[in-house]
Amino acid sequence: xxxxxxxxxxxxxxxxxxxxxxxxxxxxxxxxxxxxxxxxxxxxxxxxxxxxxxxxxxxxxxxxxxxxxxxxxxxxxxxxxxxxxxxxxxxxxxxxxxxxxxxxxxxxxxxxxxxxxxxxxxxxxxxxxxxxxxxxxxxxxxxxxxxxxxxxxxxxxxxxxxxxxxxxxxxxxxxxxxxxxxxxxxxxxxxxxxxxxxxxxxxxxxxxxxxxxxxxxxxxxxxxxxxxxxxxxxxxxxxxxxxxxxxxxxxxxxxxxxxxxxxxxxxxxxxxxxxxxxxxxxxxxxxxxxxxxxxxxxxxxxxxxxxxxxxxxxxxxxxxxxxxxxxxxxxxxxxxxxxxxxxxxxxxxxxxxxxxxxxxxxxxxxxxxxxxxxxxxxxxxxxxxxxxxxxxxxxxxxxxxxxxxxxxxxxxxxxxxxxxxxxxxxxxxxxxxxxxxxxxxxxxxxxxxxxxxxxxxxxxxxxxxxxxxxxxxxxxxxxxxxxxxxxxx
Length: 489
Ligand SMILES: Nc1ncnc2c1ncn2[C@@H]1O[C@H](COP(=O)(O)OP(=O)(O)O)[C@@H](O)[C@H]1O
Ligand SMILES: O=P(O)(O)O[C@H]1O[C@H](CO)[C@@H](O[C@H]2O[C@H](CO)[C@@H](O)[C@H](O)[C@H]2O)[C@H](O)[C@H]1O
Fold this sequence. Notes:
InterPro entries: Kinase-like_dom_sf (IPR011009), Mak_N_cap (IPR040999). The protein contains twelve helices and 17 strands.
């Protein structure tokens, strides 16, 4: 039974979380299913994972009536915790099993609670409805304290002693999590460009109202933590800032030129694709599969146009990119890919580039996320990302000083430089990719245009929902891809 205080506390807590994808939509909590306790009886905080099923009552596009299951690990205390946990407070309610009034906190922020996850992995703990699986030596003792990563995430990640990372999946589903499938394939088959897998936590829970049917899925993944790494997005935008600071210089003349890194990142991406093709399934698409994939693209464009009316003006021109793909005469090799590749999914370590987060686009149905696809989708995603890195400072609140007040006449010049930075790094990435793959994907212009269009359309919806100031960036790409602005690629 869901108690009113519990329901209200969890509802409000979800709405405040960066990782909650249902923000701004009306939803009700349909059920809360607790797993077995992680903590022993009689110990505070009492800790367990609770699975919250919610239903969107109304919504935009395809959201109405859909249900989602969110993972909420809770730490119950018999009195309020210190101020430092205030941001993780979920609510206060009567707890019949604990026979007490409890103060509930998000357990992942509570250092006294998170050791149950690390110990669970090291001991390969198994209970009736959850089990930890360890795939190798983690190299830590189990007494390490956790830190929650502050990165903007769709999930929540904890670092133990800068040695192990636990990513707790917030939206859970039946079946294997694609991130674990890919890391497991690399762990067993070799391949150096992704984090080493240490293990995962899996569970089962009833579907709907506790009937006989159960879902079985992954709740979290443990991996190597790259302690020396810097996020690719941060590195790229540092280079762009350097360029703006030296607006009289060209992209190849400034100290922070990024092209050599973009080239290496292209080569790493091609290596990852080669490994994925070697380790997991591959296939070749003919006309039937191309009709299916373009059907998805037309559908996403129609939905996006209904959500963001500004797209209507480009609708027909964008469709032509998909028409060309639907009529593509040659077979198209497909394989497992990353699925949501952008600079924020890359990390530069001292030993080279690494790719993270193989879960696919957060807005996509889980059933579609492990579908085979062309590597061109990932390359197109990265090309979009270089465009974002170059453009985002010219947009909204983050404009550099040079674009504010006196001197803002420089805007045209900075726009020109931004385009130059984007072109230079997009080209370097493709050349690096070709150096390993043996083929330059820019030569596959039909595929490249269709996938880049699909991504830009996705981004228009993503930005209009999450960062309206930034929607100009993908809209500019939409105009270019529709042939309205004849800029360089
Ligand atoms: N193996 C790793 N080592 C160090 N930092 C990592 C690692 N994996 C992820 N991160 C950091 O965590 C952030 C979020 O990771 P990601 O897998 O993209 O999570 P999400 O799926 O929640 O978006 C990344 O932007 C990066 O800063
Ligand atoms: O990292 P996630 O899996 O949560 O991906 C989502 O969020 C991304 C933003 O953080 C979003 O990426 C878009 O913005 C990036 C800059 O912040 C840019 O580099 C990407 O090219 C652009 O697509 C991603 O689309 C979304 O799925």
